Amino acid sequence: MTETIPIELTVNGRQRALSIAPHDTLLDVLRDDLGLTGTKECCQVGECGACTVIVDGRVVDSCLMLAAEADGTKVTTVEGLANETGLSRLQEAFLDHGAVQCGFCVPGQLMSAHALLSDNKHPTRAEIEEAMAGNLCRCGNYERIIAAILAAADAGGR
Amino acid sequence: MHTFLYAKPATIAEAVSLLDAHGSDARVLAGGTDLIIKLRDGTLRPAVVVDLKRIGELQPCISEVDGRVSISAAAVMTDIARDSRVRRRFPALVEAASVIGSIQIRNRATLAGNICNASPAADTAPPLLVYAASVIAVGSGGIRRIPINEFFVRSGETTLRRGELVMAVELPVPVRPIGAAHMRRARRRGHDLASVTLCCAVDNAGVTRVAYGSVGPRPVLAVDETGVLADPGAPDYEKAAIFEKMFAGASPSPRSIRASPGYRLAMLRVLGRRALQTAIERLAQGRET
Asked: Candidates 1.10.150.120, 3.30.365.10, 3.30.310.50, 3.40.50.720; correct CATH number of A89-154?
């Protein structure tokens, strides 16, 4: 029988205590144990960025991190961007600029953009391209995504 | 994913004893950006995964002591690329660390993991060879220092012994002024493995060190002490002849999916010339400041 490992982590500001298997990824646990299905599973090799979340202030591919490694960390997923008053400025900018087509990559795109704007309030286009290089959009909607991030930055951050 | 025991030792001694006991049934987990892919696709089926990130001595840390910059086993590419000492002393390592994967990968991938994975295409290998880095390994027999050029064997294989793990990678601060540059070719700009990866450094005594990877089973170091490569006035045909000798260690596989041997060998020469030019310019700039 597979051993289970107790972990405690903070997800979107809420403390969670879980019992996980050693081979569970952070992505598995977010989606299957916590029901946070905004984070998407796609390439499973760290190339597409659909599973991007923020762990202790840094973007990571949650498919390439064991849940056991997340013990004691603070995780933010796309569900943590909006608050009780509504969507974040960045999310609104994505809507305003038509940055969402099929939408599958958008949670990951938002997390990378959110982390960028947290570190750099007024990124250049080149800095945005670099920060977003780990997030693929197979609809090819990159220009609108970049426009949305620039607009959110102009509007004063997130 | 196949299951395994997950161990998170708190001390190096505990980690070494686990690795010693399980041998090839144990795998070390640092950043996991290579390991977890291999666990998922079944390439690796270890009984135990030993996570090093809870070990105090291996916590992400970059320090400079006695003329050496030491990068601990848990330090990730993002830390390395941002560190002011590494940026000042080893700009070509910063260039290499900055082109690995995406930000998501660089926030997890460690330098120690990059070299232990021993991919021939590892971008940090050429600068580590050029800067004459050492690998600090620890095992039940104690600590030993392995010159980086004696560390790589072939893809996935290093000279680490059973039960040994890498504590840190150390780079000696150059005693003479040097200029260095890292360059690569990949199928696309951005997130891709290197088809050719190369680093070149020249110093003010006329020594040129060139290291290159993704063109054979392991990265290769070649040194020119004639002064010809480092001489901005030397004719191109003389430099080309020296480069030909230095690149004799390249033997790209015809089975590789990323680029043909012909392309890799041609680009090796192009990158060699370009990186040499940039290294010479940087050496000259360093003299001015």
From this structure: 1.10.150.120
